[in-house]
């Protein structure tokens, strides 16, 4: 029953390379920028436990499904879904799932690059000691000055896109694998250095208590939905990245073991980020639930007051750049792979064309913070709509469709042949993917789109 296909783009050298690459895709701004502040907003420890529960029972089964589809098809997500639909005697319209992932990756990178540009700018500022002794008022005005200048944002957005496309243009082993082999260990070392400093901050015990002591009274239904949504987003599911990375996975590598390793590494980075950030926040009397500004307007104040603040601020924003860079290359890879397979042009040319398209779309996000700041549709700017459309609609919907195809449309013989798990492990994956994962993600989608509230209201609940 085994299907032998080969990717025209090359293969990872082995299991470790795939784990580093997929972990690099998963570990991004969401772990280091977003996870600490949403944990802070939702009470700390109880939210962390809920998040871990969602990773284990929802994220891992869907990630296994996406890797399985990628390795089975050995092509870009569009052609993979077209090939597998034909193989499983399903409707050819399943190839639109591949299109949705490819488009989602481009749209996410278009605004992700702008946010990563903030990290580049702050790294430069940190190196030159801009945050030394900075006050809260000055930190706020500094950030406002950055996002308020469209040409400065465009400059950093352009630089980050050039960094990303340079790596992608080098291919699977020469670019993607070599980059993550350097970036991921460096990211881990930087995180451990930051945690080491946090241990000496004087508020490490308070930070750990906040992060790991579970007070379930602080949880709300919104907290559960936030945990599910973040668990889904942080593993890079539904955007084509994991599917195309799976297409480069050697046949001998166990999908289940690799995915569990990736989920553990991704979660460890998120927890280490919290361990590094919260003690610094508490030691300086700052607010852990201060929202998205925690890193760009709050932490510079802390770095400005601490001994060797210039060094630690530089290390932290370098860490943020590495995390963003490793994720960015995975977001555009599905589109580049599709263009190469479709037109047979060189990887360099395909990378330049997709990079230019993504860069151009990102100009809308650049303008959203300044000259288009008042141009809103239903209260949302261009950036707000890009974020909402991808994170709340395209990724969850893509994840549901991946789970449906893998566990309902695909024959048991096909999925078991590709997963190569024992009977008990395969049955557990099939149950979680068929029922729990699909139901939970649909609930999240209904909530964020307002359908759940409407249904509950109609039911009198």
UniProtKB/TrEMBL annotation:
Membrane topology field: Multi-pass membrane protein
Claim: Lipoprotein is one of the keywords in the record: no
Sorted UniProt keywords: Membrane, Symport, Transmembrane, Transmembrane helix, Transport
Keyword Lipid biosynthesis among UniProt keywords: no
Transmembrane feature ranges: 44-64, 96-120, 150-168, 180-199, 227-246, 258-282, 310-340, 352-373, 393-410, 431-452
InterPro entries listed in its UniProt record: Na/ntran_symport (IPR000175), SNS_sf (IPR037272), YocR/YhdH-like (IPR047218)
A GO term for molecular function: symporter activity
GO cellular component entries: membrane
Cross-referenced CDD domains: SLC6sbd_Tyt1-Like (cd10336)
Location relative to the cell: Membrane
Domain of life: Bacteria
Family: Belongs to the sodium:neurotransmitter symporter (SNF) (TC 2.A.22) family.
Protein name: Transporter
